[in-house]
Amino acid sequence: MLTPEYLTRIVESTQEKVSEVNAYLVARIARRIKELFESTGKVDISPSSISDINKQIAAGGVYEDVQSEIEKKLPGIQREVKRAFYDAAGKISYDNAVFTKKVVEIEQEQGNLLDIDLPKATKLERIGIPEDASKLNMTPKEIRVLESAYRRTNGEIYNLTRTCAGEAQRDFIEACDRAFFLVKRGVSIDTAIMDAINEVASKGITTVHYGRRNDSIESAIARAVRTGVNQANGDIVLTRCAEMGVNHVLVSQHVGARVTKSDDYTNHSLWQGKVYRVDWSNPALSQYEPTPQEIQENSSSFSFLDKIKGFFRSKSDNGKYQDFIAECGYGQMLGICGINCRHSFGAFYPGVNINTNETIDKEANEEKYNLEQKQRGMEREIRKTKRVKNAIEASGLEGEEFADRIREINRLIKAQTESYNSFCAEHADKGIKPINWRLKVAKVEGISNS
């Protein structure tokens, strides 16, 4: 099954691509802010420069900048998303093949399922990313599930990026108004412009309102990809379970699982690491059951699935295991494989497979969860400060106030990074380690953020 570590790493390349877009767009807005107040090569804020018509003209330029950059970068982002999906699909397909081979061989030793001839898992599934779904050892229905999840995630990313131009335009207008407001109250022009740029860069380009916070474009897209990949994983596993009559699944576990005040599926620490019964009479699972037409599709390479389905379905656990849907909330926004969840699950055959997961201490799990939440917060603050530095440097401002501000930011970055590393070192025994890629902000036109 897909591990929590894998589901963390799977979005790295996509997030890096999106970070480049965010950094570029913030830098463009910074330049536009300065240009609005620049006349004959001199920066000067006056009522005429901040007039509504001039603001709207400049804001229109921001909108066009953002739209143009998104259109150029979106194909590259989507390529990274596809790589993530197909990399995961290869692992899922291989796991399915290994599971099937193991349980069938054990049953054949007992004199059962002697007429089953299983295909071999391909080398490609073990070591590489297939060029297309036809290279996977998956049934036609499983491939359709994969491609549907990929299209759904791509559609979500397209919708997220569409909001960027409008958000950037609003941020630009608010920043210009802030600069004018500060100058009217005696703040120097350069300081006012840098403060306005600081405000834009601190937020970055936001796309969605998630809970009580606005998320940056890279956070929103990373969450969409991780969730999309994991939901594809869950749907493919359940499809294979339905095709071959498997009645149980084993859920992954990790220290630091989501903790809530509820005793239901939203509290992931309660249900992780256990075996669950899949109740195929539940209407929520009907979509995974193969139709007669789909069984016919499998009649060549995957005919073994229908042959063993009746045998597997006849096995009963005598009520030993809890219901998967009810306990883990599969299909729910905050349940297993829901938003940003790093749990996954795989097919399980009682009496053949063994659940080797050891019980995770409740207090240790909650402590790790809280430490990871604090670590993510520190990482966001470091990225924010680096974005501010990039934006101010890219604005084209000069002079002593500019140099002072950059020195101040450099000191802050150093202090934040030292604090972050100290925090990780202090809690290394709890599994808290520095994650350098989470501290990166893309360079803008050769400007380093080191």
Automatic annotation (TrEMBL):
One Pfam assignment: Phage_min_cap2
InterPro entries: Phage_A118_VSP1
Protein name: Phage minor capsid protein
